[in-house]
Amino acid sequence: MTVFVDASALIAMIAGEGDAADLADRLEAEEARLCSAVSVWETVAGLCRSYAVSVEATRSMVRSFLAHHNFRFVTISEQEFDIATDAYSHFGKGRHPAALNMGDCYAYACAKANRAKLLFKGDDFTKTDIETAV
């Protein structure tokens, strides 16, 4: 099956957070691994902010992780925009208990558009209708 990986899961695995091994096991169980420019940008920004690593070093580390695990970048087009906008309408911050932000809405959209399960950390996506890999 196919999995789209949200920035929260990427950060946890790359940083070796407490649930990294479980997330990595779920990642390895999938045949195809997807990410987007938005989810990878969020990963770099999150790692830089939380772990005080330079942008250059973090970008290199993230690219290495993605290459090692055979990730494929998906494009974000009008279809993903429409799905992300619908996700915000139904599950967005200030509108629904899931409180999805922009990055979350695009992770949701990329997973839906590519018929992929979503791998993430936390409980925000569990309050939506997305198929999860968690």
Question: What would you say this structure looks like, in words?
Answer:
The chain is 54% helix and 12% strand. With 134 residues, the chain is α/β, with parallel strands linked by helices. The chain has a single domain, classed as 3-Layer(aba) Sandwich (Rossmann fold). A four-stranded parallel beta sheet has the order 3-2-1-4, sandwiched between helices. It is globular.
Within the CATH hierarchy, at the fold level, what is the topology? Rossmann fold
Mean pLDDT: 95
Question: Per DSSP, what share of the residues sits in E-state strands of 2 or more residues?
Answer: 5-15%
* Low-confidence region ranges: none
Per CATH, the architecture is 3-Layer(aba) Sandwich
Return the structural class. alpha/beta
> How many strands, what sense, and barrel or not for the largest sheet?
4 strands, parallel
N-to-C SSE series?
EHHEHHEHHE
- E-strand count: 4
CATH C-level category = Alpha Beta
Keywords:
alpha/beta; single chain; four-stranded parallel β-sheet; 134 residues; 12% strand; 54% helix; Rossmann fold
Quick summary:
The protein has helices at 7-15, 20-28, 37-51, 55-68, 78-91, 102-113; strands at residues 2-5, 32-36, 71-74, 117-119. By secondary structure, the chain is α/β, with parallel strands linked by helices.
